[in-house]
Specification:
alpha+beta, Immunoglobulin-like, four-stranded antiparallel β-sheet, three-stranded antiparallel β-sheet, flat
Amino acid sequence: MVGTIGAIAIMCTMLVYVAPVVLLSKAMDEFGAMSDEATEEILNESLDVEIGRPRPIPGPGTLRSVELPVALHNKGDRRASFLVTIEATTESGERLDTVLVSAPDVAPNQTVRQTETLHASGQEYKALLAAKYTVINVSMY
């Protein structure tokens, strides 16, 4: 009798605690795949992203800034707004920083040029200047 009750208690615990975690994990994986597919589709059909070379901004103290020129070109046939996530990584793939670039209400064939600013000190500053900048996500609305 005690063994049966224990087994039932373990099964209930699994249903209450483990099943939701497994289902949530599966849903997040599917959302990530949809997001990756949407990003690829937007970049193929609607948006060109040009990331320029990072430029140092001299300043006093230990905190330094890096300017990152970004150009977003609407290659679609209708007005659209874009939100682009750019990730800065080291040569080994370690994430240094993330930049969000927003371009509202961009006409077809229009290019929006912006300069984003990243802040760091010491070795992080040097790493940002040498970083690889990659588009990791794009939303269009």
